[in-house]
Batch of 4 targets.
Target 1
Amino acid sequence: QVSLAESGGGLVQAGGSLTLSCAASGLTSKPWAMGWFRQAPGKEREFVATILWSEGKTYYADAIKGRFTISGDNPNAVHLRMNSLKPEDTAVYYCAAIDYYCSGSGCYDEIEYDYWGQGTQVTVSS
């Protein structure tokens, strides 16, 4: 069965950097997209970044654009380089994948994602 495994989370001071990685297993074909979401305590899960393999495009949430960079090891691994981290970036970060297709806002919607990892904790201290 398909599984996604995140790694690289930890504790970092504000202004520091961290790189998250996600490795997928059990996939029989390349997913349409792989991306990252995050959920802070008491808040809803929110979109962070996504990479669309076939188009070679990336999309970022406004809150992290310019600070985070998503990249992929085609076909079943992605990474999230997180620079200039802020305390408000503290959250559990989840890797997710879409099997078939997404377009526009659908690529940012967690409902569209078929597979999810267990999450990795990122804590940014002030």
Target 2
Amino acid sequence: QVQLEESGGGLVQAGGSLRLSCAASGRTFAIYAMGWFRQAPGKEREFVATISWSSGRTSYADSVKGRFTISRDNARNTVYLQMNSLRPEDTAVYYCARSVATMSTTPRNYDYWGQGTQVTVSS
């Protein structure tokens, strides 16, 4: 069984930065791509970023491109999301997830999810 746990969320002012972490259990962590999604109350889950296993190739939603950076440390079974220049519209619960398809941007191609961490950006 795979377990994912996000941390690092909190309340920040617009223009500030925050780093999210996702710790994964299991020895198979390194063979899967990982992704970050976010969801605001009453809204659909939205793709944020993903990172491949084999090459470390990354992909970002247009809304966060240039501001967010996804990375991973396979030795520590951890994936990160560095968020800079935060905006109020970035406010959401952020989830990390394990991908079953390379560079997927749809939640249906992720099979394990963390419980989420709240990010709130004040204006």
Target 3
Amino acid sequence: QVQLVESGGGLVQPGGSLRLSCAASGSILSAYAMGWYRQAPGKQRELVASITRSGNTNSADSVKGRFTISRDNAKNTVYLQMNSLKPEDTAVYYCNRIIRSAFFDWGQGTRVTVSS
């Protein structure tokens, strides 16, 4: 079975940066279009950035220009570089496929807290 493990979260001040990692076992992530999702308190999970197998990327308006999704096939890992962080970015961040009908099981996510 495919297992997704997110890491890299933590507490950071507004304006700071973090890099999140999504590692997988049981499958090669380069074969799939992947995305980063987040779930803030009291809100539904939302897609914030995605990357296709060919390397095309997209991001939500709320993070455009600040977050960058990338992929390192040699390490079987997908990354999310987050710059200029804002308090409203506070959430638990998850990775998964962007095709809803073929989601892998969700991992535990990694918590990002942006606060002074």
Target 4
Amino acid sequence: QVHLIESGGGTVRPGGSLRLSCAASGVSFNRYGLGWFRQAPGKGREFVARINSAINYTDYTDFVKGRFTISRDNTSNTVYLQMNSLKPEDTAVYYCAVPGRPLYTSRVESTFHSWGQGTQVTVSS
């Protein structure tokens, strides 16, 4: 079974930064793409960022492009989300996820079959 554990969330002021981490086990990590999603209260889960298995492609929603950076370390089975210039509208529970097939990623939530428990990010003055 795939296990994903997010960490690094917290409360910051607008303009602040956080770095989220997601440690994975039970998966051939270097064969799978990875994604970050978020869910705000009363809203559905939305795509944030993704990175492919070869670490030569990344993709971001327009709302975070230029502020967030996704990266991964295949030696430690960890994916990161560096979040800079945070805004109140970034407040959400953030989840990392692994697709159901190797060597491929997309923005589509239903293609991700394994999810972490989520970590809360709150941006407030």
